[in-house]
Amino acid sequence: MDMRSTGAAMAILALLLLVAFVPFSDTSDADTSGDITWFVSGGIEMKSNQTGNISISIYNNGADAVHVRVTHSDIEDVSISMSKTDFELKPKDSSNFSDRIDITVTLKTSKYASSYDGSLTFTMTTVDMATGTSLTAQQTVPAKIHSAYADGDGMGKIMGYVSNPLPDPYSSPLASALITLVIWILISAVISSLTRILCNYAVDAVSGMSAKKKLIDTSSFRKTWKYIFGIVMMYGLENTMVVLGVDDNVIGTFSDVTDIITVLFIAMTIWHIFTTVANVIAYKFTEDGEESSLKPLCLLIGRLFIIMGTLIVIMVISGIDPASIALALGLAVTGISFGAKTVITQFLSGIQIMINRIIRTGDKIKVGADPTTLIVKDIGIMTTRCKNWSNEEIFYIPNSSIADAKVVNITKDNVYYKVYDYYGIDHNADINRAREIMVEVAYGDVGVVADGSFSKPDVRFSTVNNNEISLRLAYTVVDHEDYGVISARIREQIFKRFKEEGIDIPYPQYEIRAIPVEKDPPDT
To answer: Which of 114, 170, 212, 521 has the most CB atoms lying inside 10 A of its own CB?
Structure first.
């Protein structure tokens, strides 16, 4: 290889190395100020309530260190921040590498940012650290902001889209806004009328069904068309403001209020639908005319989810970060759970009782070792309200006590009740005849079940003691509510029959033996 070939190869290699290490950007604009070369990426186009970035790369190609300061112009309703503004660039090293700094410019438009079509200017001021020489350079990039509420293209146009064809003065923004308002009134009237027809049809469809009529809140459904008219008109007023050219902040605030009202209406509608579904489900699971105990639980859970979902959506509309609110609520709930352990236990016990359905409204129960018979009046989330069976006393029992105790449900499956009465007769009495009398009296009472659907009245030999023979009479009454009256009536009849038949009911008997004691003879 001759010298010319070697020189050509070296030149090509040098050119390739130079291209490899020269910074470039596909869409950036480069500018050189003294020994400083800087690149600003292309322009930016954003909508309101958005975030965008512009990158700036700065190189020091000189032999001296340089202090650099970068600033920017301002855009209304846009916050601009830079990752670096003041810094120092080292001189170019012996390997021909330039010191480089990359700056990220972050732009965030406000929620109510107005439309903007202009430019963003960056100013770079450099100071040579060796000579003190100062140089200033600028680069301008296009910037365009689109308003979410009142983009300039909609102003003066009917509905914000159609140019007003009327002659002056009826082609002004005010005239276009009035025409838009009238159109929205007509649209609201049509939509609300259709809604009213549908709601009335739905209510009339169930009006002849007496059972289901009570399950549907017909008054709320009949009023729905009014809410629909109001909400559609609010969106119409927002559109009218756009046509009129009202300030973005006013339109944005009104739009947020409209969205919040719409969310509340949707939540209310969902609640009515959920309540209706819960009523139907509870009706399907109704037993013996008693309302299902699952209904309050379903309504509580549904209410919590609907309220939480509504609050989250409203927070998003209002610009509040739901994540931070959720974190704060989580910490608060954790703290409350430590301080309100008993309350939480009662709440969870209430849910357990409702799901397992160990008791229901109207049941007669006994709780724990307390022999008092109670009638369940209402099962709540925290407590269960009961009435004393024998009088009008009201008991409020924490659900945790019911969940942890032995509960005897006397009337869960039916109101029949097994009664055991004990009778004592004399040792010399005719036991068989006594049995016959007791069974006859039990069979003859109208309150005793004697058709064989439950165990028939029978008598068992119970115990023998010093005073009497004890016989147990067992029978089933048709209603626990009356077992005391029935038992007293049967006892009275048996007592009379025993007296007529000569069967004695003994009194306590004791045998006393007298032991004579010899007296000492008198002294003589």
So the answer is: 114
Whether 354 and 405 have beta carbons less than 8 Å apart is answered as no
Structure tokens at 55: 């990158």
Which tokens hold the place of 244? 């009129």
Pair 62, 34: CB distance under 8 Å: yes
DSSP secondary structure string for all residues of 273-287: HHHHHHHHHHHHT-B
Closest CA to 29 of 45, 40, 43: 40
pLDDT in tens for each of the 524 residues of the chain? Answer: 444 444 444 444 444 443 333 433 344 456 777 788 999 988 889 888 889 999 999 998 888 899 999 999 999 889 999 999 999 999 887 676 788 899 999 999 988 888 888 999 999 999 988 888 899 999 999 999 888 776 656 778 888 888 888 888 778 888 888 999 999 999 999 998 888 888 777 767 655 554 444 555 666 666 777 888 888 998 889 888 888 888 877 888 888 888 888 888 888 888 877 877 777 666 665 554 445 555 666 777 788 888 888 888 888 877 776 677 677 667 666 766 665 566 677 777 777 777 777 787 888 888 888 888 888 888 877 888 898 877 778 888 888 888 888 888 877 667 778 888 888 888 888 888 888 888 888 888 888 888 777 788 888 888 888 788 888 998 888 877 777 888 888 988 888 888 888 888 777 766 777 777 766 666 65
User: Per CATH, is 357-409 categorized as 2.30.30.60?
Assistant: yes
In the chain, % helix, strand, coil (3-state, to 5) comes to: 45, 25, 30
d(CA 355, CA 297): 8
Cβ atoms of 399 and 384 within 8 Å: the answer is yes
Cis before 169 (ω within 30): yes
Hey, where are the domains in the chain?
27-146, 162-339, 357-409, 417-501
Picking from 370, 387, 369, the residue whose alpha carbon sits closest to that of residue 378 is: 387
Q: Give the contacts of 412 (CB within 8 A, at least 6 positions apart).
A: 358, 359, 360, 363
| φ, ψ at 355 (rounded to 5°) | -75, -45
SS (H, E, C) 18-74: HHHHCCCCCCCEEEEECCEEEEECCCEEEECCCEEEEEEEEEECCCCCEEEEEEECC
Q: Write out the two tokens for 175.
A: 């005239």
Rounded to whole angstroms, the Cα distance separating 137 from 512 reads 132
Which CATH fold would you assign to the domain 27-146? Immunoglobulin-like (2.60.40)
Asked if the domains 27-146 and 357-409 are classified in one and the same CATH topology, the answer is: no
* Alpha-carbon gap, residue 180 to 176, rounded angstroms: 6
Give the integer Cα–Cα distance in Å for 291 and 91: 86
Listed residue (95, 106, 12, 20) closest to 55, CA to CA: 106
- DSSP for 117-148, please give it: EEEEEEEEEEEETTT--EEEEEEEEEEEEE-S
